[in-house]
């Protein structure tokens, strides 16, 4: 992960962020993800992390409990990423301004919340409801990966498609929920539902890195096609409840 020096931040109110992390059989990545959350350069009383372990059969739960502290809580739900995200959302602080849904294989650099708070204060429309961020790969990169990720980030910005991290105004928690009846594209549907209450934003940043394990396992072109097919076509049909293959 890149390291940054703390910049001179403008005088802006610091938003309260709730970070919800669903985790199912994520023993390989969760520890690193939580280590980075605990290293965030942000006042501890202005953010919280809620890990929701859901139906794991590996060491995900004990790894999560090893990071439990005042502003890091561990919850459990039945298996299902949407169930886990909804439970986390239900348990966010009443002080929360924005909820960040963070995949368990995605790491944020120390300045992520400071830069996001500044961006939301200065660059985002007042009616903003939901958003996504640009991503970098965690794993060692092939020469073509940066080019692919640049194209992927641009496409997601234009099409309002999240991946690995989505953001929602916490005040919408009683109106906008993850659909627990579907097995894929639940994040896309959240963005669509959230946009009924406000605008979409895209945060360009170098502070978020995610695993490219699915691309590496399935193939870059094939995975991109599958996501387009599933997210834009099948998610509109009764096939949205089909089993989504898990890559670990």
Describe this structure in words.
With 248 residues, the protein is of the alpha/beta class. Helix content is 32%, strand content 20%. The protein has one domain: Spore Coat Polysaccharide Biosynthesis Protein SpsA, Chain A, CATH 3.90.550.10. It is built from eight helices and ten strands. The two termini are 21 Å apart. The relative contact order is 0.16. Mean pLDDT is 87; it is low at 1-10. InterPro entries: Glyco_trans_2-like (IPR001173), Nucleotide-diphossugar_trans (IPR029044).
User: Within the CATH hierarchy, at the fold level, what is the topology?
Assistant: Spore Coat Polysaccharide Biosynthesis Protein SpsA, Chain A
For the biggest sheet, the summary is: 7 strands, mixed
- Quick one: how many beta strands? 10
Shape assignment: globular
Question: Element order, helices and strands?
Answer: EHEHEHEEHEEHEHEEHH
Q: Estimate the strand proportion.
A: 15-25%
Protein name: Glycosyltransferase 2-like domain-containing protein
Domain Glycosyltransferase 2-like: 18-149
GO molecular function: glycosyltransferase activity
Keywords: Glycosyltransferase, Transferase
């Amino acid at each position: 992960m890149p390291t940054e020096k703390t910049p001179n931040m403008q005088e802006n109110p610091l938003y309260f962020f709730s970070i919800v992390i669903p985790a199912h059989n994520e023993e390989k990545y969760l520890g690193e993800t939580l280590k980075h959350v605990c290293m965030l350069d942000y006042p501890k009383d202005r953010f919280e992390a809620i890990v929701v372990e859901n139906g794991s059969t590996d060491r995900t739960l004990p790894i999560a409990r090893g990071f439990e502290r005042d502003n890091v809580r561990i919850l459990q739900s039945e298996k299902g990423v949407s169930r886990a995200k909804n439970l986390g959302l239900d348990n966010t602080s009443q002080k929360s301004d924005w909820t960040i849904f963070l995949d368990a294989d995605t790491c944020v650099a120390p300045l992520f919340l400071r830069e996001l708070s500044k961006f939301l204060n200065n660059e985002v429309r007042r009616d903003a409801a939901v958003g996504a961020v640009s991503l970098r790969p965690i794993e060692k990169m092939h020469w073509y990966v940066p080019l692919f990720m640049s194209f992927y980030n641009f496409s997601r910005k234009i099409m309002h498609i999240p991946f690995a991290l989505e953001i929602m105004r916490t005040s919408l928690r009683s109106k906008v929920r993850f659909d627990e009846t579907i097995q894929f594209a639940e994040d896309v549907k959240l963005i669509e539902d959230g946009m009924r209450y406000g605008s979409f934003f895209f945060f360009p940043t170098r502070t978020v890195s995610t695993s490219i394990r699915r691309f590496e396992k399935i193939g870059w072109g094939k995975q991109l096609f599958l996501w387009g097919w599933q997210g834009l076509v099948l998610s509109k049909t009764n096939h949205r409840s089909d089993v989504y293959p898990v890559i670990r």
